[in-house]
Amino acid sequence: MNKNKRPKISVIVPIYNVEKYIRRCLQTIKDQTFTDFEVLLIDDDSPDGSAQIAEEFCQTDPRFKLFHKENGGLSDARNYGLKRAQGEYISFIDSDDYIHRDFLKVMYHECVDNGAMMSYCRFKYSYFNTGITLAMPFSAKKEVMKKEDALNILIKDNYLHSYAWNKLYKAELFHDYGITYPDMYFEDIATSGRLLYNANKIAISDKYLYYYAKRFGSIMSTMNAAKLNDYWLSVLVVRNYIQYVGEYEKYKVSVRKFASKAHVLNMYSIVRQHLLHLDFRKMKRNFDINRDIYRYIISDDYQPVEGMPELPARLIQPGWKNKDKEKKNEISGVSPSPMEDDAEALYPETEEASTDTIPEI
To answer: Helix (H, G, I), strand (E, B), or coil: what is residue 67?
Structure first.
């Protein structure tokens, strides 16, 4: 690639604790049939050998560029890459996942040939590094959708999903509208809707081009109050943004359906958390908080704010291990965080870098 020529696509790959998987990921990027791209490898201060493997690719292919930064989590790594990306289009690939050799070619031509600012492809789950893959059910069919139709479907999380990684984006959607990924779980939900709102349309491929790694210890298998609160926050971000730009009535039904789904899923997760901890002291309170957040998000009286909104209340993490800490806080006068004991970093050692859109039951 000519160093003075702007690449067509910038591929951003956050790296953290993926030593067992990253070589496969990067090799599938290197082997792409579409060749006009750069790869920004963002080492988020990974403690394992992931960065060394990434450096090997940089030594043999000038399109690969390795950046080192202090640990800040998945969103921070993506935003770090966005600031340095030179491509006309942006693609995110999680470093434990991998892609079909035609991923970039198909996604690029879906955008260019259809005059679309975003493209979307089907994907398969890849299970536990076994080579077993399973197609995501209820996938989108091949079509080009106006942003209004697509956004209503995306918000409801039907057959279009908010994942960051099975899409190609016109770079101006980030740069011209100042859109970045917030520092939270389910950051993809809080971002994809904003990107699609500012796009003209989205071109959908019916090809299975992305392989999402399912691993033990994922965010979804370790749901706790911190993650449930952020799930609610992601729903609120969608409602807030759509209303802030004056388009809420167009998407009101979809927002309410999404909030209803979150309400039911979170009730299940609340019960599960209290059962796992054999602690039922505040389960009713969590049900009440969950209901109140739901009512707040769907209320016709809601007033949008500029930037990131705040939840009216937060779910409380159950667990008898919190008992002594609560007593200590009462004595010292310190107000504890309701998620303090289970608020993990976005890259804990047992957790994968990628996130699902909704809690799995």
So the answer is: strand
Q: Low-confidence residues of the chain, pLDDT below 70?
A: 1-4, 128-131, 136-138, 215-222, 320-361
Going 215 to 126 to 79 to 314, the CA torsion angle's sign is negative
Is 313 strand, coil or helix?
coil
52 token code pair: 């060394």
Pairing verdict, β 132-135 and 118-127:
antiparallel
Cα–Cα distance measured from residue 325 to residue 334, given in angstroms and rounded to the nearest whole number:
10
Neighbours of 215 (CB within 10 A): 19
| Global confidence as pTM | 0.86
Q: Please classify residue 81 by burial: count the beta carbons closer than 10 Å to its beta carbon, then call 0-12 exposed, 13-18 middle and 19+ buried.
A: buried
Query: Which of 219, 227, 150, 231 has its CA nearest to residue 190?
Result: 231
Letter string b/e over residues 330-353, b meaning 16 or more CB atoms within 10 A of that residue's CB: eeeeeeeebbebbebebbeeebbb
The answer to whether 132 and 214 are in contact (CB under 8 A) is no
Q: Is 241 exposed, middle or buried (0-12, 13-18, 19+ CB in 10 A)?
A: buried
Domains detected in the chain:
9-214 (3.90.550.10), 225-332 (no CATH)
**How many Å separate Cα 187 from the centre of its chain?**
5
